[in-house]
Amino acid sequence: MKTMLKNKNTRTNLLTYLVVIVAFVVMQVLNSQGMLGSSMKGYLVPICVYISLAVSLNLLVGVCGELSLGHAGFMGIGAFSGIVIAALLKDTIPNDALRLVCAMFGGGILAGFVGFVIGVPVLRLRGDYLAIVTLAFGEIMKNIVGNTYAGIDDTGFHMAVSTSKMKLEAGGKYIINGPLGATGVEKLASFTMGFLLVLFTLFVVLNLINSKEGRAIKAVRDNRIAAESVGINVTAFRMKAFVVSAFLAGMAGALFGLNYSSITATKFNFNTSINILVFVVLGGMGNILGSVISATLLYVLPEALRSLEDYRMILYAVVLIVVMLCTWSPKVKEVLSVVTDKAGRIFKRKEAGTNE
To answer: Taking Cα atoms as reference points, which of 198, 263, 253 lies closest to residue 82?
Structure first.
């Protein structure tokens, strides 16, 4: 039984990697043939970012069983810290790709550290209390970043929380300009780096889920009391999932921030956290491949309906409701199970006939 489960997990993981790799190859081929429009090209990096965000949040919500509404806060930390790191390393590391990698890891590490600091008091809460506190954290981070000023001049790097305390010499440049956000950002992000980020996120999350620590995290989710009774440190394993999720969100945020010439803190608000949570729920709690597919489809759908103007968000809401009903309906699951079984039997008959 244990071997069968292991083989099933391995097949599912390989299928997830295969789907991502095939999608990347197809997009690259279409791009090389000039078959992708400018709008579709603009979607590629954000799609990769939201896939990484959905997968990382699924680790916390689906695998660990903790409801967090502050994922956009970690994304914002990664975005603005990544922009600052990339600006500071411009003269030291002239190679754009290497500088982007440093900015992404720097943003991820800072987001993970903040996640650890926040997690120490917060992860002692459960259920709705945890959701409320993480929601408050996301809004607090948005307001802090929205009132932060950072710049660089001949004397070095300067940072303050008000314009009166922020004095740059002549020729200095603002990197983050308070409510105006980051302006004049050098766009370093690329679809290839987004693809590598998705692979890295999948590698980290899938290996954690299938490891000894992952089984302990699932045990905490399924029955906290039983997990404690066998010596599992519940808070420590919840903290591990929380920090890893924050770290990956920070990396995705850095890539997202460096994909635009300007960006403001209002982008990383409560609505963004809810959108990411919707990707996770519709893709299936704990279903990593489902998060990849739902993040892709649900990000592209509103943009594809943009020509409908006032009606596009209504249609988007209707689609969400229909998908939710179909995903969680026992009757729909039963029908899909019957169809899958019949398809499997037909395939086996054809295979047996071919062998004869």
So the answer is: 253
